[in-house]
Amino acid sequence: MALSEWAADYVNLVLAVGRHDPDFVDAYYGPKAWKATAEAGAPPPLAELQAEAARILAGVTAAETQADEALRGDYLLGQLRAVAAHLARLEGHRFSFDDEAEALYQVRPPQLPEATFEAALARLDRLLAGSGSVQERYQKARAGILVPTERVDAVFQAAIAEARERTRRHALLPGSDHFRVEYVTGKSWSAYNWYQGGGTSVIQVNLDLPIAMDRALDLAAHEGYPGHHVYNALLEQRFAQAAPEGRGWVEFTIYPLFSPQSLIAEGTANFGIEVAFPGEERLAFERDVLFPLAGLDPSEAERWSRVQAELKVLAFADNEAARGYLDGHLDRAQAEAFLVRYSLRTEAQAAQRLRFIDTYRSYVINYNLGEQLVRTWVERQGGTVADPARRWAVFLDLISSPRLPRALGL
Ligand SMILES: [Zn+2]
Hints:
The chain is mainly α. The chain has helices spanning 3-18, 32-39, 46-62, 70-90, 97-105, 114-127, 134-143, 149-168, 214-224, 228-240, 261-276, 280-293, 301-314, 317-326, 332-342, 347-360, 365-380, 388-399; strands at 25-28, 178-184, 191-197, 200-206, 254-256. Bound molecules: zinc ion (ZN).
């Protein structure tokens, strides 16, 4: 059997696993009949799906691949191994945090000592004037840059328009490119991009907690341009679409969330923020456009950008909290306290993050470690801060290729 036939079986397997886990299929825009078939009748037993995963894995391993299909074969094998690991989880197998991350996302997350976070807190201590703990001063500063609810949409739309314009200068987006924002409540995430196929996405923004100014570009660039929306649109255009536009690789019509693809997706979405808005350009845009639009004091923008740099270090505290909590070394209250101390979240934000960890578990590594790995890889190909054009080119190459974390060779 050719790789294409195994790829079709892989798509149908992922759809079937989705019957057991509603979070599993993040996007699907392949043949409608396959989805209808997968949704008909009772879900196939997990053991049957495991056997099917093993059969397809063996098939892909033995399949004849064309010279230009090497990454395609690696992609299918990596994704299939993750599907098998996720099935094991659904069958009740409990992986350790590190084993799970490796089985699903192809990386073992390094353990960071608390001293790393303490050092970042010490730097923040100097940046944030006033009395009280660093956490209290950080939250006080953040309270000063909350976007008033009635201005949230105007700020997001301006951020999205700018991120899109910057991305379009470098990437060939589909003519049908479209991105719609919806506001929701009662979710464990703060925003989510739902790719619809045909170059369109619906992005949902969770308004449970107040939105601070730093979220505007995060959201516009991470969820939209050049993040998730562009990643999905380019994969669709380049691979999923039939020839001559694409290659008719049907496996790219589906995106299983708990798979190595997610490390690339989240890592590039986070790194993409600074690809589109490098250094001072982000500060200038926030200070000159977004702060005034939100009715906030633009003179706060600069200090805030220095604070944000330290938060990149503290982002890794999520992994340590999740590892401790999921491996049973921290109870819920201790894990929340860890997040309050080292990621400077409020108690409400820490509780929201713990709910995210309950559902998505080791997925948290994809944001911080994913960003770090993507940055390292892009810089090794010459895409450094000093060469923005090259950085865009390497970045776009990565988000329109089947490369999985292992293929980054890091
Ligand atoms: Zn994301």
